[in-house]
């Protein structure tokens, strides 16, 4: 993979990140509600799900998801249902501060929120399955190229989540 191809991919990822999705909004919400440090678990959950999606795209599984319209629809509606659930939870707890005894949700819960929000987001599956091939050189080893593209995505997404 040439530097020019990698740089074009980086610019594409940056444009992708400029429009915040559910994971970025969840991170912002959790940071405002619980503070930045505890919310890092949300970012870690999101990035963990992204890593699995990158691996799936690299193995060609994402193309199977895209080929099966029924499965893609189920994943999409599962994502909608989970986001509605999160929204209802936020509305129910709006204006209430966590008691000092409870300390708010644990890091495990925040991690799970981040992981599930990203895992059921069909936008990520489409991104990895649809755009990765555009930046791959079939004449070069694919594993190293997918690794470079994946690490680039994780670093950029992690930066956006934290900032």
Question: Could you explain how this protein is built, in words?
Answer:
This protein has 163 residues and is mostly helical. It has one domain. The chain contains eight helices and no strands. Helix 2 (22-34) runs antiparallel to helix 3. The longest helix has 24 residues, at 36-59. The protein starts with a helix and ends with a helix. The model has no long low-confidence stretch (mean pLDDT 83).
Characterize this entry briefly.
The chain is an all-alpha fold and 163 residues long. The protein has helices at 3-18, 22-34, 36-59, 61-67, 69-92, 107-119, 122-131, 142-162. It has one domain (22-94, 107-162).
Largest sheet: none
Output the radius of gyration.
17 Å
Q: What overall geometry do the principal axes of the alpha carbons give?
A: globular
The low-confidence parts are none
Write the layout of secondary structure elements.
Elements: H1 3-18, H2 22-34, H3 36-59, H4 61-67, H5 69-92, H6 107-119, H7 122-131, H8 142-162
Helix pairs in contact: 1-8, 2-3, 2-6, 3-6, 3-7, 3-8, 4-7, 5-6
List keywords for this structure.
163 residues, mainly alpha
């Amino acid at each position: 993979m040439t530097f020019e191809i990698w740089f074009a991919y980086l610019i594409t990822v940056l444009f992708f990140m400029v429009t915040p999705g559910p994971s970025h909004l969840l991170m912002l919400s959790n940071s405002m509600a619980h503070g930045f440090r505890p919310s890092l678990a949300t970012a870690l959950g999101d990035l963990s799900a992204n890593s699995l999606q990158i691996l799936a795209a690299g193995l060609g599984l994402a193309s199977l998801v895209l080929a099966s319209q029924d499965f893609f629809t189920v994943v999409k509606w599962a994502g909608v249902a989970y986001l509605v659930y999160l929204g209802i939870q936020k509305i129910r707890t709006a204006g209430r501060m966590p008691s000092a005894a409870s300390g708010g949700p644990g890091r495990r819960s925040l991690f799970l929120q981040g992981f599930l929000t990203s895992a059921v987001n069909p936008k990520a599956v489409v991104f990895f399955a649809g755009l990765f091939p555009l930046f791959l050189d079939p004449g070069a080893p694919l594993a190293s190229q997918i690794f470079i593209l994946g690490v680039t995505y994780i670093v950029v997404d992690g930066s956006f989540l934290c900032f």
